[in-house]
Amino acid sequence: MISEKNKKNHIKILQNIIKKMSKYSDFYKKVWIACLEIPAGKTLTYKQIAEKVGSPKAARAVGTALANNPFAPLIPCHRVIRSDGKLGGYSASGGLKKKQVMLKYEKETGKNASLD
DNA sequence: TGCTCGGCCGCAC
DNA sequence: CGTGCGGCCGAGC
User: Fold this and answer.
1) CATH numbers and ranges of domains, chain A
2) Do A46 and A86 form a contact (C-beta atoms < 8 A)?
3) Which of A3, A8, A16, A77 could link A66 by a cystine bridge, Cβ 3.0 to 4.6 Å?
4) Tell me, in Å, how far CA of A84 is from C1' of C12?
5) Alpha-carbon span A90 to A75, nearest angstrom
6) Residue whose Cα is closest to the C1' of C6
7) pTM score, two decimals?
8) pLDDT tens by residue, A92-116
């Protein structure tokens, strides 16, 4: 369960996220949201995401969006694969900075950051 | 299996 | 404000 104090803090974190998102384009946001909608255990291709956000041919741009997302581990981009079945690139292990964001999130909320 | 070109979005110049 | 270039890609050859 969540205490009131914790809850408040949680909201603060969420607001922080919204704030961060707002400085990016709608396209990016849509991509991230689409990722969040992927059920645990399932995978989507970059193309499917591109279609979902209204630009079926912008799979590449989708990749850019995921690569630039401020909450790398928070968004399950590991569930996004290439349409040829390969994993493609994954910069989570390289994006250590963003990993810190996640750790901070976990610390402040006391929850697992990967929303699964 | 591997290379090339096409197409879309952000960002640096 | 225009132009060019690169990216967690896709499709074609």
Assistant:
1) 4-109 (1.10.10.10)
2) no
3) A77
4) 14
5) 12
6) A64
7) 0.82
8) 655 556 677 777 777 877 767 665 6
